Amino acid sequence: MIKGEALALRAYLHLDILRLFAPSMMNVEEDKQLYIPYVTTYPCTFQPYTSNQDVLNKAIADLKIAKELVGSYDLANIVQLSPINRIENGGADDIFFAYRGYRMNYYAVCALLARVYNYAGMHQEAFNETEIVINALCDSYGSKCFTFTPSYTLRNGNTKLYEEIIFCLSNDQLWTIYKPYYGGEMSLYLNAWSADDLFDDNSDIRKKLVTTLNYYPVSIKNVEASGTLANYSKDIIPMIRLGEMYYIRAEYYNSKGQTDVAFEEMDVLRAGHSCTKGRLSGDFNQALVNEARREFIGEGQLFFYFKKFNIYPNSKYMTSELQFVLPRPDNENL
Question: What mean pLDDT do residues 249-263 have?
Fold first, then answer.
């Protein structure tokens, strides 16, 4: 299990480095340029740079092994992956085997494999992995491991919608860390005039996680909350959400020219958040980016959607897709 988790984390970290420091796959295709190394030895003082596709191939290889290794434990102890168990003890006798939502559990590996396949343009393979996650059952009664969050739980402090989280990290000082950024010159204002600019449906439960501060919208996901569920949410740093699985499925159908079915997949998620179905239309890529803006507020994923589809968040300051590529650190050129 430890080896499987380590291999999956290696793939996770390399994918994010690739997505930051190399052009998106939609922009490079088979350019054969070398962007980052995929480090497989320790200690490592140097590893040759390789292409986007080589990095993705190595990440996929790591995740396939990780899936088998981690699955040998999680699939035998599936009750620990029920919505509340995965961020609680989960009934494990040994604490080392508890809190599986904070670890690279089996379904987190599958979801990450879907993300990598999707980024590589391998839409069928990505779709297959989402099937495993979405259909995962955590008891003999047919209860889903990952479900959409009931609206009433937000009033009880469930600001992270933890039922939908597949993999997360923990920092029990989040409320303290974020407190200075709500009010004053450092406020974390969202890139919108109001919540109405972000949400197209007033019933969307995700809209309840946005408030107005000094006339501008801000996310309250990391604001100190009250209620019986606040203690579960206070330390959670979401890394992979259920919503991403539906976006990957939508991309699969769009790649087959079935844009209407793609919108239906996105509507499954929207309906789970109390939105009215049938409102999505027009350009698929833009519609998906708009949905990602609502789904991943303050979670660090939206940048990658803008970059993947080459959609500029602000056309006044962005004029080239090359601006999505972070400059290589100077010490990498020593």
Answer: 98
- φ, ψ of residue 327 to 5 degrees: the values are -65, 145
**What are the tokens at 248?**
């990957």
Q: What does residue 104 show for φ and ψ, rounded to 5 degrees?
A: -75, 75
**Above 70 in pLDDT, residue 31?**
no
| pLDDT tens string 122-160 | 999 999 999 999 999 998 899 999 999 999 999 999 999
Q: Residue 261, exposed/middle/buried by CB under 10 A (0-12, 13-18, 19+)?
A: middle
Which helix (H) or strand (E) is 36 found in, with range?
strand 36-37
Tally of CB atoms within 10 A around 290: 19
- Domain covering 1-135 assigned CATH 1.10.230.10 in the classification: no
- CA–CA dist 304, 24 (Å, integer): 9
Nearest to 150 by CA among 158, 142, 140, 139: 158
Domain limits, the chain: 1-135
Q: Name 64's Cβ contacts closer than 8 Å, sequence gap at least 6.
A: 113
Does residue 28 register a pLDDT over 70? Answer: no
The residue type found at 234 is K
pLDDT (tens digit, 9 = 90+) per residue, 173-221?
999 999 988 876 667 888 888 999 999 999 999 999 999 988 889 999 9
What does each C-alpha distance from 243 to 5, 33, 246 come to in angstroms? 22, 33, 5
- The pTM assigned to this predicted structure is 0.95
Please provide the DSSP assignment of 183-235 as one string: SSTT--B-SSSSHHHH-S-TT-GGGGGEEEETTEEEE-TTS---STTHHHHTT
Beta bridge partners of 36: 50
The structure tokens listed for 291 are 């949905």
